[in-house]
User: Fold these one by one.
Assistant:
Number 1:
Amino acid sequence: MSDEDDWPEGIPHRLYGRRRGKKLRPRQERLLSEALPRIRYTDLGFAAGADALWFEVGFGGGEHTLAQMQANPDTAIIASEVYEHGLCSLLTEIIPDGAEATAPLPPRLRLWPADARELLLALPEASLDRLFLMFPDPWPKTRHAKRRFVHPEMVPIVARALKPGGIWRVASDDPTYQAWVREVFAGQAIFTGPPPAETRPEGWPPTRYEAKAFAAGRSPLYWEWRRGS
């Protein structure tokens, strides 16, 4: 979905910030040109026979994705990220130094190097068992609030892609975003969940962004929302 005229009303066409930071090293360029096309999501065929299908929105450095993949080998995972250095971080873990970019790739993992919302809109209804949003860009300025992934217009889109009873996990250390999450979920009736946990629950792998939050003296909150039937 790239035509802005087809984009759902009320949702900004551009959610993310930059795609590229400092210049990529030659091996990173090869990973993007040779490995990424082989692991890019194209259809749900890779998930055939899997116990569940999970989707991570904005995986950053990939720590959470890798930990979930290793702890849940029978689960199929789609991980989305637009920032090239983030994609390279995950690809480097999958294909370590010394291995060719054409080395075998995890069969239950697919990457989506584009706006996660496009894929959510394209996935079959009730196809996901879980969705993860770990420490997203808070877009702290009021005028940028519409760019936040947690948004009143996004709630039914996520719900459509999740199965009844499916789980949406959200973690954030930003006070503005934490207040925003409370406000958005208080104004909807599709998802239910307890108050957020103040310490990382079991089964939630740590990430570099969580570590940065602790180092800066910020206190993350961890929500788990469940889609109604």
Note: The domain at 19-227 is CATH 3.40.50.150 (Rossmann fold).
Number 2:
Amino acid sequence: MARSTGSANPSMLRIFIHRVLKALLWFAAGSALLVLIFRWVPPPGTALMVERKIDSWVNGQPIDLQRSWRPWNEISNNLKVAVIAGEDQKFAEHWGFDFNAIRAAFVHNEKGGTVRGASTLSQQVSKNLFLWSGRSWLRKGLEAWFTGLIELLWTKERILEVYLNSAEWDEGVFGAQAAAEHHFGVNAKDLSPQQASQLAAVLPNPRNWSASRPTPYVAGRAAWIRQQMRQLGGDNYLTTLNTSRSDKPWAE
């Protein structure tokens, strides 16, 4: 009887490990397929939008989610460059992670005070599109996984296109088109450099800052972003996105 019990435990452990590995394999294959599909198909929504809707039900405060997908050519170049200037100036160079920024943020946060983030646009896309809010190690691990898939399977243009159609620019206002209409009454393709810089300026805190009614701090940040846009080369900077993936022909 003792031998029977002893032999059962290793067998159950093997079965458990086998099932876990099988589940991980299915997750890896399924998530890769989903990311690949979104390389061409516009995502119908984002995990952040679902989270906002659930929060509204829990709090009993109805929310009208606004979002209207716009392809790359129907979004102002001003907004594309402004978002890169304000959020991720090494976007064309890195592979999803800016390790220098991560180290700087770690050192800053160790000193206490305000918490500084170091998420690239690619990381923000993976988080907003697929994951929940929070700072757990599990979520961070999944964010790294999806960021790697996005960088591997999408072009830089596609990453920025999805970002601009997924970012939140006010309570329930998602994407460049909804933001342009909500804040300035124009289409996303018609945003001026100043309007684009003000939209980019509120991205760190879009539910508390307003692009159309900027505080002195937001106005100053928008002016800094316009300066960075000029230093990056304006529209010309976007041509570097086309060459950043030249060593990966399957992503084109």
Note: The chain has two domains: 1-37, 46-251.
Number 3:
Amino acid sequence: MAILEVVLAAVVLTRHAAAECPPGQLECAQSSQCIFSHYICDKGEDCSDGSDESEDLCQAWGGGDNTCGKGYVTCKIWDGISCYDIPYYCEQPHPPCESDLDMRVCEVIKSGKLKPLSDNTGEVSQVNFEVVEALSDLFFSQVNVTFSHPDCPFPYTLLGGRCISIFFPAKLDWGSARAFCNVVGGELLTLHHHEDIHTLVTHLQENNMVSDFWLGGFLYNETVGWTWLDDTPVELGTPFWALRHTEECHKRNMTINDRITLHVNEGQCYQYTQAPQSPPLGHCLALTYGNYFYMSDELCLEKRSPLCVAAA
């Protein structure tokens, strides 16, 4: 058995005072007024103090070479170009590409409060050695409960009767994550039963796992729908899939006798939709810490950790 050599890097923590605005909105600099992020630098001065139109913020909000337009980041991936809105890009723990976006913009987004970029110095709080030692202890305890078990080959542990590898140190795109699982004698994990996801998520939470993970599910096309790698369909809805906030009004319907469709609750607007989106946000299936390890459709080229199951 090969010896796994792991290097634990020092971790720097940044604290932000969170503004109290609904998801998708930011607080103006000199007031408690909240505005949607897409109003930033639209030449409308939606904040009474004008902080949404500050010169340095708007210069950065132009998106670098501006190929994708104001408020977007231009991602050059292989031979193509993808566009991501700035808030989405900043919220990703592992952005899908490198860009020339001034990362102080992301500090503004994460803080939830508008302010000139010059106020963001990029300084971070220092972590004392006691914290570093605690993180080291946590890392090795996580390795012990994820990489080995007497009834499973290395690097697998036993969960719910299956040998599963929770290889959290690696960060790979979906295709590379699948190849990694193949190399260690397995395949990306499939979750067919409620009990499977409950057992897995309980294990992740109990061991303070904060990584995002790839699963063995994908959307080849809208006709076939979401499918596991064993060619079985992915079950949609509760309790598997995450909720996503939206700025749009979504009314929900119910069908009676297979022919009558009605709005429920007197046509009330709901600002949450359940993943997967239509059209999908991404074509690969993941469990993300930000979604409390509920499943979501994600961009296949993003970097996440592989969740593998050993071949039977």
Note: The domain at 147-241+276-310 is CATH 3.10.100.10 (Mannose-Binding Protein A; Chain A).
